[in-house]
Amino acid sequence: MSELPDRLAINALFAGNYADPFALLGMHQTANGLEVRALLPDASEVWVIETTTGRKLAQLECLDPRGFFSAVVPRRKNMFRYQLAVNWHGQQNLIDDAYRFGPLLQEMDAWLLAEGTHLRPYETLGAHGAVIDGVHGTRFSVWAPNAQRVSVVGDFNFWDGRRHPMRFRREMGIWELFVPGAFNGQLYKFEIVDIAGQLRIKADPYAFEAQMRPQTASMICGLPPKTEMSEERKARNAFDAPISVYEVHLGSWRRHTENNFWLSYKELAEQLVPYVKEMGFTHIELLPINEHPFDGSWGYQPLGMYAPTRRFGTRDEFLYFINAAHEAGLNVLLDWVPGHFPSDDFGLAKFDGTELYEHSDPREGYHQDWNTLIYNFGRREVSNYLAGNALYWLERYGIDGLRVDAVASMIYRDYSRAEGEWVPNHYGGRENLEAIAFLRYTNRTLGRAAPGSVTIAEESTDFDGVSRPPESGGLGFWYKWNLGWMHDTLDYMKLDPVYRCHHHDLMSFGMMYNYTENFMLPLSHDEVVHGKKSILDRMPGDAWQKFANLRAYYGWMWAFPGKKLLFMGGEFAQGKEWNHDVSLDWHLLEGGDNWHHGVQRLVRDLNHTYRHYAPMHQLDFDPAGFEWLVVDDRENSVFVFVRRDRDGNEIIVASNFTPVPRHNYRFGVNQAGNWREVINTDQHSYHGSDTRNPVVHTDDIPSHNRAQSLSLTLPPLATLWLVKEAE
């Protein structure tokens, strides 16, 4: 039987150093009878009220002027439901005692969390509205196994860590408490006395909404309802589907002209979504929208992994944006960052006084490139936190896929480190085996729990099998960014055309490894920052040649095997580097029709044409879908190839990367008949020279080891797409 606590215990409780508040507070069987104890600072009078009858049963005696009350309830032997009538500063409040409720975590949840295999840890950890024993409130739980004491503090208790110390579930290192009367919209944090006795105030790692920076509190709010992925959305992600991604930083796509302030989620739904649809893209990819403290990180240093940033509105308004995109027939991808996190005091760093989420050794736990910390993927609870987060965005927000940032930095222990600055794995190798296991587990989990969704790896090395199944030794991603293709082709395009003949293989080399992965061709935000110039500004020559080069390059990119990605602004030839602090240069489209309009129309037409013709996308990852017709014409810097669908239909693509028109350019083809242009990047509406080809018929003239051939005029600095007309 529990006895009256001694003075040392009461002092420890008020000092916030008592780790087992349920042993002191609440209702207890004692030798003297049924005793109720409460910690109520600043209260002047406290009564025990029987909930079922509303009768006052006993007045609690103030045993300590700091607010510790206790009384034996007369003539009662069995535990019963009760409330406390508390007089604070002359006002009486009827409250439910947080310490009359039993343990919260269910046995199966506890087992799975401890094992690190809980599919949806966010349904258990964090803050969740609940009704327990007829009482409305919020149940809080947080993993902090090495803390001496954890309290939940917030709007509901004057941010006073003495009022709601939590129960410690030692078997899994989780602290929990049900707080009656805590409701949605209230702010909270966890007050932690860490392993060294230091006080830490931490945001909730599982918070579903958070304050706008520079404020850092978490907000109580319910989980969004689960969503089902429609068959149409699944089809838009498929390997044989046309996928053209518009990559967007929501804070700088467009801003209010009068004050340079961001558009809200609702305004973006009304402006961005229709624009992307009109331009013919199939997907919007958002740079990270997880809550983050520093604008200049573009979201790539996230701390609120479960909270959409409040910069553009509420969580529900973000859901509105996602739904608007889906209603417009667009899929939504999120840039997801499990590779590192910032060391801000309110976040995950040294969460309970130990390196709980990160490694203790900076050779494993510190990112030199970004001045951030690295997750300890080998700790079950950490990998579960992240894998659960991936599913959360797909299942609770209807996100259609995740682009995973900086995969190479995760899977190699020596990434960007010199000799002696990294720790080998237990086999002595450089691979981060724990991170590899985490990625495989996450991708496998998403494939089973969210069928139809996809993951896309930003992976910059030749690691084998990034987009191959884990069962065959791969990482399990659906797609991989083809950064090699991007670097090679941009290196080629920035050359003066007179020198391109000496670097001809830069454009064709991508086909040497094209079928080793399921590739996406990215012209991302990374290519228009840090002094790299805009894509337009990398092109050589005068203004006419710059725009012609860019148009020819886009025509090549949209025709080349692989899914497409273009960063915002690239579609209208943004003139200068991207600046996250201001809007894109929409003024370039003002003042009458110009070269920028021409590029914008071309990208729109490329998207719609690419989507319309199955040969351009159906066999991206099948060698049968591509064939070179001319690959060795270095002298003229000309390439010609065929794209093909499952039924054998072909589209011919021809590119001339010099400013010299090539008249009567003959090359062999596979199929006889009439061929007509469906894309010509040099046409007048794109502000080209309008060198066109009428419908042309094949000739019975052998060429390039083929019996039939075509003779075309190849416009200067241009790419053509030709389709065969029906007989």
From TrEMBL:
Signal peptide positions on this chain: none
Gene Ontology terms: cellular component: cytosol
Pathway where it operates: Glycan biosynthesis; glycogen biosynthesis
Catalytic activity: Transfers a segment of a (1->4)-alpha-D-glucan chain to a primary hydroxy group in a similar glucan chain
Start and end residues of each Glycosyl hydrolase family 13 catalytic domain: 247-596
Key words, A-Z: Carbohydrate metabolism, Glycogen biosynthesis, Glycogen metabolism, Glycosyltransferase, Transferase
Gene3D superfamilies registered for this protein in UniProt: Glycosidases (3.20.20.80), Golgi alpha-mannosidase II (2.60.40.1180), Immunoglobulins (2.60.40.10)
One GO process term, biological-process aspect: glycogen biosynthetic process
Documented EC number(s): 2.4.1.18
Catalytic-site annotation from UniProt: 405 (nucleophile), 458 (proton donor)
GO molecular function, one term: 1,4-alpha-glucan branching enzyme activity
Task performed by this protein: Catalyzes the formation of the alpha-1,6-glucosidic linkages in glycogen by scission of a 1,4-alpha-linked oligosaccharide from growing alpha-1,4-glucan chains and the subsequent attachment of the oligosaccharide to the alpha-1,6 position.
HAMAP family attached to this UniProt entry: GlgB
Family: Belongs to the glycosyl hydrolase 13 family. GlgB subfamily.
Quaternary structure (record): Monomer.
NCBIfam families documented for this protein: branching_enzym, PRK05402.1, PRK12313.1
Full protein name: 1,4-alpha-glucan branching enzyme GlgB
